[in-house]
Design goal:
Oligomer: heterodimer
Largest sheet of chain A: 2 strands, antiparallel
Strand order of the largest sheet of chain B: 4-3-6-1-2-5
Structural class of chain B: alpha/beta
Number of strands of chain B: 12
Radius of gyration of chain A: 19 Å
Number of strands of chain A: 2
Order of helices and strands of chain B: HHHHHHHHEEEEEEEHEHEEHEHE
Strand content of chain A: under 5%
Shape of chain B: elongated
Radius of gyration of chain B: 25 Å
Strand order of the largest sheet of chain A: 1-2
Strand content of chain B: 15-25%
Shape of chain A: elongated
Order of helices and strands of chain A: HHEEHHHH
Largest interface: A-B, 47 and 58 residues
Number of helices of chain B: 12
Chain lengths: 131, 438
């Protein structure tokens, strides 16, 4: 009987922890913040403009796309995970994002807040196209 | 009351394994990184918490383990390790799904150190669990396995903690990082408690072997006396870890049931069957040898059921040892409640304590039924296994309020539990002890 209790408890604990992990992920990523599956693809012109901004700003020094750049922080598929607004938030983090990034990364990225808004739009459109 | 304590300690366990998520959500919380990546991170933190709390489960804290019986805690330790490993694998798969580029990074050989630590940790966890699940098939002896188990566990958890420190998701706040690191290292420090503090305490309460008595069926009774202290206060039916011929710091100890009366803690009998490993050396032990005990443990005791109207014991072979402790104690206390013992053995010549059981019948309202797998010429008692039919013929099934205690080889316990269930004995009245802890 006690073996049954132990087996039941181990299984229930496993399921509870799995549920807790999924609840945590959903709490952190409310449905409205995720890009809808049928989100329209960004305009090709904007994407190519954003690709140029990516190159010009040297993003590949810290990030990689398709294996090009620093592979420790790959951006492949990021458009499927985060909405363009969230991506923009990570590119040029405002004060509210301080807790979301390592201190040195947060400080380093402050320079991108001075980019022209159209460059930021293009860059986030480009990254959103990576699905 | 016991149920309340069980619920309390289960709640404590769940709080401990869920604590990391609470920590991540405390104070300023970073923005989400996408559902898959965040689910992966949460699974990783939770899996590591499960693995860390494993140190606590096997630290043998008597107050926490008593309501369950420590044998079942060890059983849970084995099961929950598999759950932890499954969560770790889930963590890896979800990270890979969220960051497909990581696969190429791992293969490129240019992976950062914290990813290398993660790979090594996962490999060590898998090795640790594999070696434990298949220890007997791999013919690994208990002592070297136990030492390796501890070393692998410490290495795997430390590498996983290093991985978390290096990747640092959700731990950008210095106080969060400090709390996480402190908590995680606290689990590992429990090894210090188990391997240093506990042996030091055992060293202050030594015992001396006063007799080594040969019993039937290749079984030996070791008698111990406390040296300079009052002895072990135990409940009849409990067991203890025995260190013999080594320092308690050598981590060379083995669990055995206490067979003597709980009314006489100044003299402790451990009845041990020679099963070919450490138990094979018991016959060579000389009176005067030093011994150390860590105990008592176990919930297999009549003293947890003071309101029982009587007790039924069903023992197989050396499984009689804890039952003897309960019978001897009941006799010393002058208990008048009705008792039944069904005792299964291979042959009549294998029946350990059969003369003493006869003598106990004069001191207790005790019915003894011997069941021999192979009866001899002239044997007119029960033969075969402890099947439902045998149980039905001899158990006081109509009596209310009896508590059942089953102890013996695993297949026998399974057979008897099935039989009792078939006869309508409620499971809550049936206790059994798992001998095979590892």
């Amino acid at each position: 009987m006690r073996e049954h209790l132990a087996r039941w408890l181990a299984l229930t604990t496993g399921l509870l922890l799995l549920a807790a992990a999924l609840a945590f992920a959903r709490w952190q990523n409310p449905l409205e913040g995720a890009p809808p599956a049928t989100a329209p693809a960004p305009a090709p012109a904007l994407v190519s403009e954003g690709s140029a901004v990516y190159e010009a700003q040297g993003c590949a020094l810290c990030h990689a796309i398709g294996g090009e750049g620093d592979p420790q922080h790959p951006l492949d598929g990021i458009g499927a995970r985060l909405s363009p607004e969230r991506i923009r938030g990570f590119i040029a983090p405002a004060e509210a994002m301080r807790a979301s990034l390592p201190a040195e990364v947060f400080e380093f990225k402050q320079q991108f807040r001075d980019l022209p808004p159209e460059d930021l739009d293009a860059l986030s459109a480009y990254l959103s196209s990576l699905r | 009351m016991n149920t309340n304590r069980i619920i309390f300690w289960i709640a404590v366990y769940l709080a401990l394994v869920l604590a990391p998520l609470g920590l991540l959500l405390a104070g300023p919380v970073p923005a989400g990184r996408g559902f898959a990546l965040d689910a992966a991170l949460a699974l990783g933190y939770l899996a590591l918490a499960v693995m860390g709390v494993q140190f606590l489960l096997t630290a043998r804290f008597r107050r926490a383990t008593a309501p369950f019986g420590i044998d079942i805690i060890y059983y849970f330790h084995r099961l929950i390790a598999l759950v932890g490993l499954a969560l770790l694998v889930g963590h890896v798969l979800l990270v890979y799904r969220a960051k497909p580029g990581l696969g190429a990074l791992l293969l490129s050989g240019a992976m950062p150190w914290h990813l290398a630590a993660a790979c090594a940790s996962l490999g060590l966890f898998a090795l640790l669990i594999g070696l434990s699940l298949w220890r007997k098939q791999l013919h690994t002896h208990y002592e070297p396995w136990r030492r390796l188990h501890g070393a692998l566990a410490v290495a795997a958890v430390l590498l996983a903690v290093a991985h978390v420190e290096g990747s640092g998701y959700y731990l950008h706040e210095p106080w969060k990082r400090a709390a996480w690191t402190g908590g995680a290292l606290g689990w590992v420090l429990l090894i210090g408690y188990i391997r240093l503090l506990k042996p030091a305490l055992m060293l202050r309460r030594p015992y001396r072997v006063t007799a080594v008595q040969a019993e039937r069926a290749n079984t030996w009774t070791l008698t111990l006396q406390p040296e300079g202290h009052a002895g072990l206060r135990f409940l009849p039916g409990q067991f203890t870890w025995l260190t013999l011929g080594h320092s308690p710091f050598a981590a060379n100890e083995h669990p055995f049931s206490i067979a003597s009366s709980a009314e006489h803690p100044e003299r402790l009998d451990l009845t041990i069957k020679d099963l070919g490993d450490f138990t094979h050396t018991i016959r060579q032990v000389k009176p005067g040898a030093a011994a150390y005990l860590d105990g008592p443990y176990g919930a297999f005791t009549i003293d947890f059921h003071p309101a029982a109207s009587g007790f039924v014991f069903i023992a197989g072979g050396v499984g009689i040892a804890p039952v003897m402790s309960m019978l001897r104690t009941l006799a010393d206390r002058g208990d008048t409640r009705p008792l039944t013992l069904l005792y299964g053995n291979m042959h009549w010549e294998n029946v350990i304590f059969r003369e003493e059981l006869e003598a106990l019948r004069a001191r207790l309202p005790l019915d003894v039924v011997h069941v021999l797998q192979e009866g001899h010429e002239g044997w007119d008692g029960e033969t075969g296994f402890l099947t439902q039919d045998v149980l039905a013929r001899h158990l006081p099934l109509a009596a209310e309020g009896r508590e059942y205690f089953v102890c013996g080889p695993k297949p026998m316990i399974a057979l008897v539990e099935r039989g009792l269930h078939g006869l309508g004995v409620p499971q809550r009245h049936v206790r059994s002890e798992l001998f095979d802890l590892v």
